[in-house]
Amino acid sequence: NILIIGACGQIGTELTVALRDRYGKDAVIASDIREGNEELMQAGPFEILDATDSAAIEKIVEKHQITDVYLMAAMLSAVAEKHPLKAWDLNMNSLLHVLNLARDKKIEKVFWPSSIAVFGPTTPKDHTPQRTIMEPTTVYGISKQAGERWCEYYFNKYGVDVRSIRYPGLISYKTLPGGGTTDYAVDIYHKALTDGQYTSFLDQGTYLPMMYMDDAIHATISIMDADREAVKIRSSYNLSGMSFAPEDMEVSIQKHIPDFKLDYNPDFRQDIADTWPNSVDDSAAQEDWGWSSKIALDEMTEIMLTNLKSYYKKESL
Ligand code: VAH
User: Which atom of ligand 1 has the smallest separation from the CA of 78?
Assistant: First the structure.
């Protein structure tokens, strides 16, 4: 069976639904430090679990005969800057607990998310290569870089089948934005519908690698489905979807809401975004396990506004 740790997070929420559709709802145990939304709680087994508690993880693995663990629990970049050591503890120790279960053959396979946050200000910014200079200057990025090193170490030393993807900024409508620097790209759609206006905390011209959630979920399932030998990179794979700046979103949204207005008030998150790439090269993922992204900005805008519109209509009823 499959255990998702951090099932209530931005990726975890949609990954749980996708994996239950694919493997059956009773084969996918969702867990998090708090309860999730109705869809998540109704649709299959759920456990309250603190990702830093190794004994609790082991107990759930035994109770539910878990073979595959998707460790999605982490503190994201903006929040991690406010609680550095708590972020390190959660992001690092949760990974080591799960890797040790795999080392001890208590589970067979691990998925762990890395991020384009592993790159820093000295990394080449355009079409950032799979292997390049990585001097992350954020707590979150440091924890992701260290995590990648641990994944590769456990694969080389103990043969642990751990697989990882460097997600770009992810956009989805099923969860509210939570603590990420890229979350302006989620917030903007909500505010376009509720206020017709949005003040972005990232400035004009801030290009970042971004992706619609469905593409990210497809990539996650593809890499976990791939033959063991196909997954040649055991640190983490670059993954590319789109690269855009806030003004590109304004143009895209105005195709649906003509008088939508965007203005700018950069805050501390601008300093984080400035250390990250504008775009990444994901040819390794394309070659090794057949990855390709599908959804572009205007299609994403259509999906986001359509789904959020019905959400806000229900809310206002
Ligand atoms: C964040 N959404 O902003 C996450 C992600 C690349 C960004 O890691 O922290």
Answer: 9
